[in-house]
Hints:
Elements: E1 4-11, E2 15-17, H1 32-41, H2 48-53, E3 64-70, H3 71-79, E4 91-95, E5 108-110, H4 114-123, E6 128-133, H5 135-140, E7 147-153, E8 161-162, E9 173-180, E10 186-192
Parallel strand pairs: 1-6, 1-7, 3-4, 3-6, 4-5
Antiparallel strand pairs: 2-8, 7-10, 9-10
GO molecular function, one term: 5-amino-6-(5-phosphoribosylamino)uracil reductase activity
Protein name: Deaminase
Organism: Streptomyces katrae
Amino acid sequence: xxxxxxxxxxxxxxxxxxxxxxxxxxxxxxxxxxxxxxxxxxxxxxxxxxxxxxxxxxxxxxxxxxxxxxxxxxxxxxxxxxxxxxxxxxxxxxxxxxxxxxxxxxxxxxxxxxxxxxxxxxxxxxxxxxxxxxxxxxxxxxxxxxxxxxxxxxxxxxxxxxxxxxxxxxxxxxxxxxxxxxxxxxxxxxxxxx
Length: 194
């Protein structure tokens, strides 16, 4: 069975973006060592435009071959003309109640019960499923997430968009990995204890 992994960037105080969702400020805290690790270990999570620039156009996926994102996560790329930001994935999903037609042939829309759709995806053969974001979608899928991989940047935001809007509820995790980088970034991975 495939796993749903919430692979997400966050500040030390747990925000994935500014109050409006913009996360560009975190890129200032991504040094060469950290980016090199992301390229080596998670090449498929780099959007198509970045893959071409980094020479990853033909890089094989290591962990994920499906991506699911909320409309707000998809929107910035769409506004920049990237209708298929992860076209190198076998499956690309956008959860939206407002889009009635997919902007690209290889993007599939989910407008109904997203948890049921994800359970169906998990039952299929393949690599893992990357939950790309955001906070509302992470809340809707809280009971379907099997693994968290959290890229923590060495910055405190004070307020902003949280990792999830699920509300209070204790969900035990088991630490499965921790890698610290010289620039202060840390990648921690956790399995969800069921």
